[in-house]
């Protein structure tokens, strides 16, 4: 049995969820990026209270470590590490791009033949820059997470041989300049099940990170979310 608190404050929409043995119990979402800091702690308390669960009952905390909003990542990581340190619970770290890719698979497996399609999550990083990566249907990395300035020729070599499903808030500006029939675009709603699926696998495999040395994955030295377009 595993009772996991999942925290994702990496992008414009934040969410927290409780999962038990791989099943979502409850979740809360915040749509205002400016309020992620004030949203987090009261919502964790509310989530636990609404489900009659004490914080000491948690078996682990999972955090979306980035890339994404610098401020959002700091807020989420500080809260997750604080809970784990106080309760002596393990911390699970999950890449934010992998969460979006997993959500894209869950939401679109019925619509596309994803066995022959790559998944490209994109997180807006201001102007024409995005945080991105490429995965296959099994969420195996094809292109390592990175910051990329996009232009009409981006992903040209990959699109020659594959269909690619682009998703995430950074995919919107890429869609405006992309002119390739192999490029597919999907609006991915917040899906707590995606993060839970990944955190449960890591929990089962005892794949935890060191509390003292874990930190957000910025991919860039500094990302100021207040200047995000």
Task: Give keywords.
single chain, 5-stranded mixed sheet, 229 residues, globular, 29% strand, Nucleotidyltransferase, domain 5, disordered C terminus, alpha/beta
The name of the CATH topology of the largest domain is: Nucleotidyltransferase, domain 5
Helix content: 25-40%
Q: What count of helical segments does DSSP give?
A: 6
Domain count: 2
Strand order of the largest sheet: 3-2-1-4-5
What does the average pLDDT come to? Answer: 92
Layout of secondary structure:
Layout: E1 3-8, E2 14-20, E3 23-30, H1 36-50, E4 60-66, H2 70-87, E5 91-95, H3 96-108, E6 117-124, E7 129-135, E8 141-149, H4 156-161, E9 163-167, H5 171-177, E10 183-186, H6 192-204
Parallel strand pairs: 1-4, 4-5, 6-9, 9-10
Antiparallel strand pairs: 1-2, 2-3, 6-7, 7-8
Helix pairs in contact: 1-2, 3-6
Describe what this molecule looks like in 3D:
This protein folds into two domains: 3-95 and 191-227, Nucleotidyltransferase, domain 5, CATH 3.30.420.40; 97-186, 2-Layer Sandwich (Nucleotidyltransferase, domain 5). Strand 9 (163-167), helix 5 (171-177) and strand 10 form a beta-alpha-beta unit. Helix 1 packs parallel to helix 2 (70-87) and helix 3 crosses helix 6 (192-204). The protein has helices at 36-50, 70-87, 96-108, 156-161, 171-177, 192-204; strands at 3-8, 14-20, 23-30, 60-66, 91-95, 117-124, 129-135, 141-149, 163-167, 183-186. The chain is built from six helices and ten strands; from the N terminus they run E-E-E-H-E-H-E-H-E-E-E-H-E-H-E-H. Residues 222-229 have low confidence and may be disordered. Helices cover 31% and strands 29% of the residues. The radius of gyration is 17 Å and the shape is globular. Strands 3-2-1-4-5 form a five-stranded mixed sheet, with helices on both faces. Strands 8-7-6-9-10 form a five-stranded mixed sheet, with helices on both faces. The chain is α/β, with parallel strands linked by helices and 229 residues long.
